[in-house]
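#structure-requests
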Amino acid sequence: MRLSQRIAAWLETHWVAPAYSGWLLGSLSIFFFIAATNTLSGWLYVISGIGVALLVIAALLPERMLRSLSVWRVPIHPVSAGDQVMVELVIENHSSQPKSLLQMQDYLPESLGSTIQHSIELIPAHSTHHWIGSYLAVKRGIYRWQQVDLRTAAPLGLFWCRRSRVAKATAIVYPTVLPLLQCPLIDQMGRDQSLLFNSDRRAQAATEGLTRSLRPYRWGDPSRLVHWRTSARYGDLRVRELEVFTGGQELIIALDSERAWHSTPETQSNSEKTLADEFEQAVIAAASLYFYACHQNLHVQLWTAETGLIHGNQVILAALAAVQAGKVTQSQPLPSRSLLWLTQNPTSLPSLPPGSRWILWPGQSGIPQKTTAKNFPGVGLLIHDEQPLQLQLQAMPR
């Protein structure tokens, strides 16, 4: 920004800054005043005085126009990456005079969008003006901003005045959740007898087949569930609702966020292969695996180096939206139970707890291109850039 632009911006935010028409009227007023002093012509003094009076009035009114205006935001609902973030601003006029010819500027973070300008023709006295804007959330994250500027040159358009208002905003963009039809890596962990899932099979045998309640028959109900004795008593078919057993199986999805991740040179040079670097893929994989495991009736927890073990849909999605690799101030200890480890560090695989599985992104670790998952200890998946992430998560582990 040039020096003249910085001076104009400072004047506009602290007092008023002349517009082009203001500079022009000021120059003409000075010209007529100089001409009047040379010719001692009274009408030139009048013209010069009228110009100066207009400049004074035009310099005072814009700041008064911005008084008694407050700005506040409607809370922003969380969205997923690729969706539209809806931002709603409310400008309230507390004065008994209408406010007209205003500009509103909302300063968004660069990764969410650019500064938006909105023109307002009129805000009646003791009334509000609602503005709704939408921005495409390309990347997950937690975005915060608070500055909104109100700007006007009303009513004469000779001077610009800008005043800032604080309207705090927080937009949470969740990572993309891939719809997995299957995930053998998690399915095998659920069937693996060597993993301690705390499932009490004797409780399952005791509760399986127990009748919880009776309800009227609905089309499609199997005939084996019809309770004939009760049906004969009430004169219509009654169906048994069986007790549903939940085994309490546990799954820990651990994201290696303590170390800094690096994208492969191919990923950095060819944006068509992937829309995100490898850590972003790992976050997407963690979110997708979490919801797949929830659909399989598993008790799922997420571990990151910053949060430790957490559970709950909203809590986990918010943690995945905020997580950054290599920016952990205080690392939490890794659980000693079996887990699903998402990492870019192949040297961490041998030290995983017994029965763990892993998903490895090669990164810049020097892994040869033809290396497969069989070359690493344990059972897991080796992610390749040339294949879609969703298809690889649904593949059989090796």
